[in-house]
Amino acid sequence: MAIKSILTVQTDFTGEFPVSDQTVGLWRFNESVPDGNTMLLDASGNNRNFFVSGWSGTSASLVLGRLGRFFRQNIVNPTSERTHLVATNDGSFFSDLGEKIVVGGWINPTTYSIGQNFIPIFNTRHGPGQPIFYVSLYQGRLRLMLYNASGSLIYDQTETPSITLRNNGWYFIASIIEVNSKRVQNLVCDRSDGAIWQSPIRTFTGDLNQNCVANIVMGMLADTYYYAGGFDDWFYEKNSELTMEELISYFKSSILANGGDSTADVDALTEPGTVMLKATSGVYAQNGQLYTTAAACGLAGTGRVSVTSEYTAGVTAISLVETSTSDDLVSWTQWQSVGPSGELQSLNRAYIRYRITLTTQDTTRTPKLIEIQLHDIPKPPYERLGFARPVILDTTGAWEAVLENAFDIIVTSEVNGADILEFKLPFHDPKRESLDNEKQVQIVNDVYRIRTTTDEKTSDGRVITQVYAEAAFYDLSFSAAKEPMDFVAETPEAPMHYALLSTGWTLGNVTVSTRRTWQSTEKNALSILRATQNIHGGDLIFDSANRLVHLLTFGGTDSGALFCYRKNMKSIQRVVDTRSLITRLYAYGKDGMTFASINGNKEYVEDYSYSSEVRVATLDASSFSNPYQMLEFANMRLAQYSKPRISYVLSAMDLSVLTGYEHEAWNLGDIVTVDDKDLNLSVKTRVVRRQYNLQEPWKTVLELSTTLRELGDASAGWDKAADILSSADVLDRQEVKDLVPFNHLRNSRADDGITYWLNSGFDVDPNNGVSGDASFKADGVLGMTKSLSQTIYPASRRSYTFSAQIASENLQKGPNGQVGIEVMIEYEDGTTETRFIDLF
């Protein structure tokens, strides 16, 4: 899969003029006021700042507009205000001009500037020394003048474009000056209607003043003539690579974007390279739509859009991604939502633009859009594993070589586990030179990366190259280091999204809905994803071609495929293993905590469904501080080990590669039927591991199991999960005794009914209290929230303790149910923070 285009920098979202290596100066005017030295910043990074002459006591201002702020001057009376801008030449502005210089930017003229004979825009005629160019308006028409080293005029042309400048209109103007070819071409564009005019290519004689040391002055000439109106995004490049076509493309694309527009509900300026909802007085808009500039499309295959963002699950979101395409940057298709996995639904045209909807349920928070990628996914050269061959990809993801002579091609893959490719190639094969380590190899829709190449001369004299490659998702283990992160009663989307940030991979479909409270201490994306699957359950599916990660409740189908002797099964082995059989499992959590108080005073769970023999083991759950989650974990663990582990290993043929047997297709994770009369065996089971021989599909080896196998050994997986799980602290009896209580809650035991509480759905039970006679009680209803709340005003302390005792008999949670304490903390500066303590 090749990346066709990426939008990730500020100019992609705002339409501002981009910086290049050839930019001498670029002035965006995005400040609200000049700095303490009355300077406006140069965005090129070259520190060529503008001094504002005539700032104080005039109408000069930095006004909100379409590209952030713009500089406005001399609106009241140009001849008396005399505001202008000066960039001091350090001697390098015009040295080493190269082949081409380009100057241009946006103007917002007033009637005064359109009607006068001589209105300076961007010039070098104020000295010191002799000038090189002078860009101006003459009676509202663009005029360019060029000078030689002696100060003589070598070019003077006033253009008569088809575009008429009007008061308060916005126009993009630019001049391309070819230094050695001695050619000039000018451009005028009208934002209001998208009109474009380019001059004929004109010529000049003589040589430009490449020894010019004059300053750049905007809006003034000879202390006599002044410009009235606005400037925005003015730039000057030397040794420029810009063409007239690129300047026109910039203009057409710039008017599409709104990330810098003061009237939009999105903001791409506050954090460069990031798009947020716009905040007004600290309050974010509830929703907003970003329109981007245009990017390259023109796909060779199908397209997929991936969006990298930061969001809070259930609160903030990138809620909608839409695309529109064009061949000329003028006529665009209707907006079309991308598919559920980012599939491009718009027509394949030369250019693409995006409309992204950002939303929040909490106006103190905002989602953040960081990057948009368009992936070009070529049609795979093979549609099935059977008889497929490895395809080497180049750095762009395009096909480089099909290895027709590869042999012993084996793909080994496991549910929630390994995925590797191994094959051999004759050493003297002409395509051997394409086998470089870290290159990508495509097998049907899967992508692998070459990790080892081994050249070997065998005992029979053959010289071969052996290749070992790992699935592309293994690269996620090399992601930038991740900081520890707490997830409080979150569904798996939250940790998976955190894991994939800045990896180039995107979250796909998630059908697992369990909520878990835990802390991730893993350092890379892949380990966080594995931990998430261990904790929440389900099947982790990596779509390497589309760089998507899914977590599905069940990552397969009931394929209907039948394996039986003399049909497609050569041999079969059934293994029944009771070596790790356990019927009684003790569990101990943080500080020796047990779940006895909620489990009939028993510190263990039991399951004698297979054996009546007491077989005891102890589970280290020291990372748990919530007895309810620890009990759930222990039962889940015991369910695995209270029964024999039954697996089947069979050598079988993939019949689906043969004409007429397509219905016999199966995939990793699918349910299949195995039938063998000699073994008195007829069972439905799942393909949990396959060793697929692409060259000889009849030599494929499958491992089947009636239970889902974790990565490696199941016990190791669960031990790792126990190490990283954490939850709300639950106090044991000794900790309660050690407390010196100071209860800020009033009527915490329901002695006075509901007094002091804000109640929604609770009653008082006068007969069943713990420390008193009464307690609060609620009967749960699916899809409904019931709550008790109280606001307290404690004195300042370093820490606080929340203590509660709950009765959980017959307590059952719905799919998204939560039982716990929600704490909203308001700080002295008015900011708030909400935390949820999960109790069940």
Automatic annotation (TrEMBL):
Residue ranges of domain Tail spike in the record: 473-717
Coiled coil (residue ranges): none
Database matches in InterPro entries: ConA-like_dom_sf, Phage_tail_spike_N, Prophage_tail_N, Tail_dom
Residue span, Prophage endopeptidase tail N-terminal domain: 390-471
Domain of life: Bacteria
Matching NCBIfam families: put_anti_recept
Protein known as: Phage minor structural protein
